[in-house]
Amino acid sequence: MNDKIKPAHQVGPVSAFFIPQVMQIGIGYLSFQQIITKYSQQDAWLASLISGALSLGILWVVLRLLENERQFGMPDLFSIHTRIFGRRIGTILNLFTVTHVLLFAIMSLRSYIEIVHVWVFPQMSMFLFSLIFCLIAWYIVSGGMRTIAGVCLLSFIYLVPLSILTLFIVPHAQFENLLPLVDHSPAALLKSCYELTHVYLGFELLLYVYPFISNPREARKWAFRSALTTVYFYTTTLILAIAYFSQGELQNTIWPTVAYWKSVRFPLVEHIDIIAIVLLLWATIPKVCLCSWIIARAVKFTVPKIKMKYSLIVILALMIAGTTMIHSGLQVKRLNDVYATYGVLIIYIYLPILLFCQWIKKKRGRSAAS
């Protein structure tokens, strides 16, 4: 693949704000309160801050990896693997990381279908919905990175009202539910941090998008602003959930966010929860589009003769097959658990090791040159 991206195919640096934001905010926003409070109850907001701080540290690792690679050509994960480990091992590592991207897309799509089945259309055909959804994704991805970035921006705009809806529960919140403060052990907080890991995942896709963002120095600032905004968003939502529900109610409510959406009332408008769930479709479309584009680029990088427009059809067919093979809510939960474990392995363990290997490779190169 070419080492330089044409300016006509690049997006502005502000894309580094809303692309990771849209990747991180999704279906997990509806249920993470129940999961994270299982171990640390009213102190769960501390675990959210700790997880957010860790994600900021890993974002620094991601941006350092990309900036170090810029002097050698294309600053993306595919090129990093190939340069450091060689073509053969690099291809294996690319397959390892791209599998995580595929899991992310299938998990996002199937989780949204589960929400729609439970709250809106119980008899909806899973295959038909997946087929129509992937046809829309194919149309968007065929337009290239700029089209995908535009959809991400639209998604960000459409999700703003959902965050505003959360504020309507403030008058009903009992903030004494947050007491006593710091009443749990570090082990309990760490367990909650692990449970929250999959919610903060998504920013790592910058590893594949970064070459298409112009003005990298400005983009780095926007990336950190995005991460901080996500931490603020999830932490404030969690605090409001702890203040609104009792611990017993929170542990017995699968989707707490939907539960307090149901309590919101407007004149002449009923079922705000259903309207919000439909709007959440815009949180799923850009995830599937960007993941499909990344996997198609991986195929193009590995086998240059295969055009992206052909591999994209196979990729979306795999997503449809993977989605329709998961039949029950329990299987959806297991898929989320697998994705979370895979994400911890790649993001919090593999990427720091990769940065160390990159540093070793750089040191050896200097020694050989001298």
From TrEMBL:
Keywords: Germination, Membrane, Transmembrane, Transmembrane helix, Transport
Cellular compartment(s): Membrane
Any Gene Ontology biological process: spore germination
GO cellular component: membrane
Keyword Amino-acid biosynthesis belongs to the record: no
Top-level division of the source organism's lineage: Bacteria
Topology of the protein relative to the lipid bilayer: Multi-pass membrane protein
A Pfam family recorded for this sequence: Spore_permease
Record InterPro entries: Spore_GerAB
Transmembrane spans: 12-32, 44-66, 92-113, 119-141, 148-169, 189-210, 222-245, 274-296, 308-327, 339-360
PANTHER family from the UniProt entry: SPORE GERMINATION PROTEIN A2
Similarity comment text for this entry: Belongs to the amino acid-polyamine-organocation (APC) superfamily. Spore germination protein (SGP) (TC 2.A.3.9) family.
NCBIfam families xrefs: 2A0309
Protein name: Spore germination protein (Amino acid permease)
Taxonomic lineage of the native organism: Bacteria, Bacillati, Bacillota, Bacilli, Bacillales
